[in-house]
Amino acid sequence: MSQLKIRPLKNIPAEIIVPGDKSISHRSVMFAALCEGQTLIENFLSSEDCLCSLEAMKALGAECEVLKTDSRGKPVTLLMTGHGMKLREPLAVIDCGNSGTTMRLLSGILAAQNFKATMTGDESLQKRPMKRVAEPLEMMGAKLKGQGVKVTAPLTVKGGELRAITYPLPVASAQVKSAVLLAGWNTFGKTTVIEPEKTRDHTERLLAHFGVKVVREGNAISIYGGQKPEPKNLYVPGDISSAAFWMVAAAASPDSMLVLKNVGLNPTRTGVINVLVRMGAHITDAVTVGEGEPRGNVVVRGGETLRGTVIGGAEIPNVIDELPILAVAAALAQGKTIIKDAAELRVKETDRIAAVAKNLRLMGVPVEEFEDGMEITGGQPLIGAELECWHDHRIAMAFAIAGLFAEGTTTINGTECIATSYPGFEQHLEQCMTEPLNPEVVTKVVDHVPFRKSDSKAPSGTADSSS
Ligand SMILES: O=C(O)C1=C[C@@H](OP(=O)(O)O)[C@@H](O)[C@H](O)C1
Ligand SMILES: C=C(OP(=O)(O)O)C(=O)O
After folding, report:
1. Whose CA is nearest to atom 5 of ligand 2?
2. Is residue 230 part of a domain?
3. Please, are residues 56 and 110 in contact by the beta-carbon 8 Å criterion?
4. Do residues 120 and 161 both lie within one domain?
5. Do 315 and 327 lie in a common domain?
6. 128 is in an annotated binding site
7. Ligand 1 atom closest to Cα of 347?
8. Where is the protein situated, by its record's location annotation (predicted)?
9. Chosen domain end from 171, 201, 224
10. What value of ipTM does the predicted structure carry?
11. Where residue 78 sits, what CATH number does that domain have?
């Protein structure tokens, strides 16, 4: 078991480049594998989750030539060769590791194949509900067999001829939306998914990139079956969910000036910036490349004391993976923060509400836990503690950042899970715990950046917004 020992913050680096976006990397290899021909993928996230998706697509008949690797020898530039929408029957059970995205999106792809395939995953993934994809895919005509009432993995999908459906999502989930759209792509009609709240739209954008038309009308997203994708090279922007850890660290440390380079700025993912600005952080983000997936630099300047806020309503799907680190920001802020409407956190890699509440309390932060969120009273000094992360990468990284602001040492057990989404996190963290080489280099260039103004308003549908 790996362990991280966190010492108090010494330095926020002037610049951090986070690795590629996890959601987009998964989709890039899946959709490229469904094209006939070659797609070059640059800045692929070679984390364990995305490598599971890559291996799965290879097991289903795609080929992958690695053109460039990172310092660990893992692929970052890939040339994928696909053979069209009809895949090859895999010879073995597909291992999705820790990745809900792999299992749920692949369910939609497998639902349309003329064979039976089984997917499994690690202990955590085997506990996560797959009923949410089994239900609509069975309505379309596929057969899915999992374990127990939650239809957990191992999950067997027997595909076949599918019919188009209109499906109102019971939960705001981009994974379920994507599974239904991917299955609908293989029918003869129009499949529509209606979202209760807007979720990340990487599937829609990436399908469009490959020439497959997906139409959004309000909260309804439709795809017509039978459209042939055309291979087209793509570049994966940096992951804003990984950048979020450093946004909070920089926003909470008085003398920092941090530029996060080349971050994905898709508006369905930038909620974390809105929340931090509302909490008083000085942040600005500028889209420099706008086509397909917008990306650009995010600049964070520390200084203001953060203040508590309410996070809830339609904002939740946009910040769902950032809620653990936003809870840490709340602990570092003055006043109370309420996180609500976030019951989905209970069915992630671990129960993230229970995990965050437990660890914050061990660090001396008062937390009240609700079924769908928590209330955090910030502003008390954080105390170093020995913490678990329950094999959950986001919990491990969120509390590594908390440890930077704690008195004494914070130990986090089981940090090998960080490789799920952010290889290289530990190196960036080490920089924060080491004296800066040249403290003079506080970037003057960014002094002129106009920081975003907070409108001080909580999102509609939250307690704050009515006052
Ligand atoms: O579609 C995706 O890539 C993801 C969607 C979200 O899950 P849900 O669809 O379960 O909300 C998110 O939590 C996950 O990390 C990635
Ligand atoms: C929930 C996450 O991923 P997944 O659902 O793909 O396991 C995450 O990365 O925080």
Report:
1. 100
2. no
3. no
4. yes
5. yes
6. yes
7. 10
8. Cytoplasm
9. 224
10. 0.99
11. 3.65.10.10
Question: What is the domain range of residue 248?
Answer: 3-19+237-462
Is the omega angle on the peptide bond into residue 154 within 30 degrees of 0, that is, cis?
Answer: yes
361 marked as part of a ligand binding site: no
Asked if the structure places residue 66 within a domain, the reply is yes
| Stretch (H or E) spanning 83 | strand 75-83
Q: Tens-of-pLDDT digits for all 467 residues of the chain?
A: 899 999 999 999 999 999 999 999 999 999 999 999 999 999 999 999 999 999 999 999 999 999 999 999 999 999 999 999 999 999 999 999 999 999 999 999 999 999 999 999 999 999 999 999 999 999 999 999 999 999 999 999 999 999 999 999 999 999 999 999 999 999 999 999 999 999 999 999 999 999 999 999 999 999 999 999 999 999 999 999 999 999 999 999 998 999 999 999 999 999 999 999 999 999 999 999 988 999 999 999 998 899 999 999 999 999 999 999 999 999 999 999 999 999 999 999 999 999 999 999 999 999 999 999 999 999 999 999 999 999 999 999 999 999 999 999 999 999 999 999 999 999 999 999 998 876 555 544 455 577 887 765 655 544 343 32
Same domain, 104 and 124: yes
Task: Kindly state whether residues 113 and 125 are assigned to the same domain.
Answer: yes
Which ligand minimizes its atom distance to the CA of 320? 1
For Cα atoms 187, 189, 195, give the angle at the middle one, nearest 5 degrees: 90
Domain count for the chain = 2
Is there a catalytic annotation at residue 321? yes
Q: How far is the CA of 188 from the centre of ligand 1 (A)?
A: 27
- Residue of 114, 85, 110, 88 lying closest to 227 (CA atoms): 85
- Rounded distance between C-alpha atoms, residue 95 and residue 279, angstroms: 41
Ligand 1 atom showing the smallest separation from residue 173 Cα? 9
Question: Hey, whose CA ends up nearest to atom 4 of ligand 2?
Answer: 100
Claim to verify: residue 217 and residue 276 sit in the same structural domain: no
